[in-house]
Design a protein that fits this description.
Length: 246
């Protein structure tokens, strides 16, 4: 029986990428994953709707509402976050994609993340300065959360130098940790609402995110769990440290 040698060119075909035996390939495995990352379906929808760039304005808006801040203040906080946490990093992402600096918004290659991390950190710094400058008319917790959204990307960049963890699971677990941390004794008076919201994020939305990123082939389980651990633990630690410092 004659066996045909498998050409390396066939590894780039959708048939190879979609083979049932190759459904669970990490994005840094050395194999092309373009077919997997372009998959359109529930996994793609979940991943896009819970994009890390969409979470800071949502978290800050909910936090502002829970604090009972005036509508005008909530609008200012949310608008500033939308501009610097979401719109600018998203625009930079599409610019880098258009000019070939990255191959996918999912950033499957660890080495391609550094430049976007840098731009995002700069934008988050401006957001922190803007929100921190208005603390007297907002609330110290707003500045604390804005600082979390600055410090976490910096640490994420350092981690990314050696290991590519999932930004999606890190950001979502961080959001859950923020609302969970606000219910812990000695930090705030928040109780039922934020606790339920935290459990919803951590026990319902986070498993969905794990499934979607794994289904898309963007991450291995180790990378997904690494994102969860780093996002959650860093945020809880930072909440307590910033609360002591403030």
């Amino acid at each position: 029986m004659h066996h045909k040698k498998l050409s390396t060119s066939c590894l780039t075909t959708p048939e190879y990428i979609k083979d049932k035996h190759l459904d669970r390939i990490s994005a840094d495995s050395g194999l092309p994953l373009t077919g997997r990352l372009q998959y359109r379906g529930p996994a793609r929808l979940i991943s896009d709707l819970m994009n890390p760039l969409f979470l800071p304005p949502l978290v800050l808006a909910i936090l502002s509402w829970e604090l009972g801040l005036p509508g005008s203040t909530i609008s200012w906080i949310t608008g500033l976050s939308l501009l610097f946490h979401t719109a600018i990093p998203l625009a930079v992402t599409f610019y880098l994609l258009k000019n070939g600096h990255i191959t996918s918004p999912d950033l499957p290659r660890r080495s391609a993340r550094t430049r976007l991390f840098g731009y995002s950190i700069a934008s988050c710094f401006i957001a922190f300065v803007g929100l921190g400058a208005t603390v007297p008319v907002t609330h110290p917790l707003i500045a604390m959360v804005a600082l979390i959204y600055l410090v976490n990307p910096v640490i994420g960049l350092l981690i990314n130098l050696k290991w590519k963890v999932s930004i999606h699971t890190a950001a979502l677990s961080s959001a859950g940790a923020i609302f969970l941390g606000l219910t812990l004794p000695g930090l705030t008076e928040f109780t039922a609402d934020t606790f339920i919201l935290s459990l919803t994020i951590l026990l319902l939305l986070l498993p969905l995110m794990i499934w979607s990123r794994y289904r898309l082939g963007a991450h291995s389980y180790a990378e997904l769990l690494g994102g969860i651990a780093s996002g959650f633990l860093l945020t809880i630690i930072e909440l307590y440290l910033f609360n002591i410092m403030w």
